[in-house]
Design a protein that fits this description.
156 residues; alpha+beta; five-stranded antiparallel beta sheet; 4 helices; 5 strands; elongated
């Protein structure tokens, strides 16, 4: 009879790998100012667990078949990368803020659009920064591939 059960050592490492990745991701989402530090720690955890996985495969002479292939995939950052690519937002190309008509204007540029928001609280020359971070969306300008304006949506 051929033993087709998954290797329990690899299974436990994949569980540790997945749980540590989820834990660090949650920490980085809760404290975005420290997210680079969490990413550094996560890379160290990934490196250590990858080395341990290699040692276990080499010492135990594990055959890489069926279940063990799936477990090996979960012993790597591959599932996390797929998760990030599936859940990530459109990347921001740039941001710009300036004062206009007694309000702070925030311009966020994406690949094919720009969003303009204005501060709820007023600004002045003496106090150019608004007292709070509340902004409301004024308009979205959409562009084609040649940077020509396709559509402008205005909000009030």
């Amino acid at each position: 009879m051929i033993n087709e059960n998954p290797n329990l050592k690899l299974l436990s490492i994949s569980v540790i790998y997945t749980l540590s990745t989820i834990f660090m991701w949650i920490l980085s989402k809760n404290d975005e100012s420290a997210s680079l530090g969490y990413l550094f720690i996560l890379v160290i955890i990934w490196a250590v667990l990858t080395i341990i996985t290699g040692i276990i495969i080499w010492k135990d002479k594990i055959k890489i078949k069926k279940w063990n292939i799936l477990i090996l995939i979960f012993c790597s950052p591959i599932p996390f990368m797929f998760f990030l690519s599936a859940t990530s937002k459109e990347p921001i190309v740039g941001t710009w803020e300036y004062n206009k008509n007694e309000h702070r204007i925030r311009e966020i540029t994406y690949k094919n659009r720009k969003e303009y928001s204005s501060s709820v609280s007023k600004t002045s020359e003496e106090y150019p920064i608004p007292t709070d971070e509340n902004y409301h969306l004024d308009s979205i300008v959409r562009y084609d591939k040649n940077s020509n304006i396709i559509k402008t949506e205005r909000y009030k």
